[in-house]
Amino acid sequence: MVVLAKGELEQIALPAAVQKAAPPLADVPEVDLGGGACRADAARAVVAACEGHGFFKVTGHGVPAGLLARVEAAAAAFFEMAQPEKEAAAAAAAAAAPGSPFGYGSKRIGCNGDLGWVEYLLLGVAAAAAAPLPAHGEASPSPSYGSFRDILNEYVVAVRAMMWEVLKLMAEGLGLKEKDALVRLVSHEESDSVLRVNHYPPHHELKQQGHGRLTGFGEHTDPQIISVLRSNDTSGLEISLRDGSWASVSPDRKSFFVNVGDVLQVLTNGRFRSVRHRVMVSSPRPRVSVIFFAGPPPRERLAPLPWLVAEDGGRRRYREFTWREYKASAYRTKLAENRLCHFETEAD
Ligand SMILES: O=C(O)CCC(=O)C(=O)O
Ligand SMILES: [Fe+2]
């Protein structure tokens, strides 16, 4: 249950006054990894999608439908647990990485006052391990959380393999000499990846009070390299198009959606677009989504790849920074802020 204190509703419900109806449907490009297209065509399609919306759908991904159904059911069961149980599970997840934002959260996104009609579980992911989510020892407060974590581990292993394939296709499509240039960043043992499970409860009472669409997750770009999202059949995700208008993403529980993140925009010298997106809640059914955010190691020095700078007439659009530096900067800002502008170089 997401419970709102007085004053908080105004912040979450504000956009409803601005926009009552969901925006038109987005034309989301599809990339079939199932061998339907030749590899070069798939690589070209990935690059075109990343240059366009910075967002695309992956079909033919090979992740078993049964696993997706189990993740969905286990996530729903987790969020049905009583608040103290969810918080206890969170405490254990947080204990695995002291000082991290990991664990269970409700309506507070980040630590700069952003609110949303959402509750979530945030977990750190070990890059190369067979069981990539942290265990929390024998003192697990909740056996059901333990089995949820096991299912998520299976999920992470399957999605990671698919994501590496997408990153290889990207490198091929960009004509990079080093085909593993992007995979290397997210598969290093110190790579900083995160799994987030979001639950957006329906809001019957608020609807009765005349509130339309609520902000589930306010507009933002994802800071990492890429994010791979899978949701149940409930709508709510919206992306911002290049002209600044918003478009709704039709849910598709059989497929994955890929977002270009801020770091990939930098690595490609601005050729790929880190897509601004948000979740608006208006459905009578809950939305459950699972997002794998793939990031580089904290010490990794990030800068536009030389080949792409050369292709861009030699102009380097971003200065070099480490992932640690970028994350620190992101933690200090509100969700909706443009964080990349602090790392842009001066135009000549
Ligand atoms: O829950 C969703 O569908 C998307 C949420 C999101 O954009 C995020 O967690 O970064
Ligand atoms: Fe996001």
TrEMBL record:
Its cofactor is L-ascorbate. Keywords: Iron, Metal-binding, Oxidoreductase. It holds the Pfam family DIOX_N. InterPro entries: DIOX_N, IPNS-like_FE2OG_OXY, IPNS-like_sf, Iron_ascorbate_oxido_reductase, Oxoglu/Fe-dep_dioxygenase_dom. Signal peptide: none annotated. Gene3D superfamilies: B-lactam Antibiotic, Isopenicillin N Synthase, Chain. Residues 190-296 form the Fe2OG dioxygenase domain. One of its GO terms (molecular function) is oxidoreductase activity. Belongs to the iron/ascorbate-dependent oxidoreductase family. This is Fe2OG dioxygenase domain-containing protein.
